[in-house]
């Protein structure tokens, strides 16, 4: 009986509770780096996008449920996924600014250069781009299958043949979404109102939202900095009077970037419409294009090299970072190590503070931790000596 009760409790906790069938907006938005998807719930009356960037939005009817594990509402597209509206109306200051028709689109980019190859194709161009992607992918898979056959044959005849090993096909790095339906959103900065109309040209109830289109403040120089042992947790730092602390035995990499400055509240609401506890005056720095110019520390210039990160297999885990001539490196950076203790200028206004190595710091901490014991012992010996003189 107890086991049955426990099972029922678990089912209540982990099986989502159906909430309602309602109108939502599915937004495929550009965040300054890549495209991401966001569900705009009926409770979200404002939508945020970056100005003069390609985005896609579509109104859909679906079933919403509350997911207890993450405390958020989700859409059950498998139960209900119906596109609503034939036209998207955009109003500015009470007048119709633009009317958009529903269209096909696809998002594609090359992993070797995401920033400069990221694109969203519309209409007939989307179908052409998607068909070309499928054709190139099929061609690559055929070459890969043939390579595996040739490699298997080569390995079998390895001891009796002097043939050169087969060359693998060039890595296929293009990625693509499937064809989707949406309205193309690309607007100048401003505050708009949007809603969708049906075939009879009537406004569909529940589809009205505010649309906030915001711009970046400006682009500035900046850096992406990480320690060799903490490659997965880099620090992004604008060239704007920031300090970074490191140690004398650290091995750090500094990537030079252009950073885009955004209003942090607007940018946060772009990513998460429910996140409203952010100060309007805060700044969000977003990585732009890498700069391959040397990195200046005080009066010394450190050249940029290409590096490859290799994951370690087996029980060791972790990774190693090596300089490489690979045409598709993991990153480009200046490698700085063995800086002496002190303060250094990075770029125009930033500072690098180099502290003693970990071993030295640990020794100091041990000495400091034992200091109260030594003081106590000294006081005890002095008092004991005085008492001896008093009674001697």
Task: Record keyword descriptors for this entry.
3 domains; 392 residues; single chain; 25 strands; 7-stranded antiparallel beta sheet
> What is the total tally of β strands?
25
Rounded average pLDDT:
83
Structural category: alpha+beta
Described by the principal axes of the CA atoms, the overall outline is extended
Low-confidence stretches: 9-19
Report on this model:
The chain is α+β, with helices and mostly antiparallel strands and 392 residues long. The chain folds into three domains: 16-214, no CATH class; 218-355, no CATH class; 365-392. The chain is 24% helix and 45% strand. The chain contains five helices and 25 strands. Strands 1, 2, 4, 5, 8, 9, 10 and 11 form an eight-stranded antiparallel β-sheet that branches. Strands 14, 15, 17, 18, 21, 22 and 23 form a seven-stranded antiparallel β-sheet that branches. It has a five-stranded mixed β-sheet with strand order 3-13-12-6-7. The protein starts with a helix and ends with a helix. Residues 9-19 have low confidence and may be disordered.
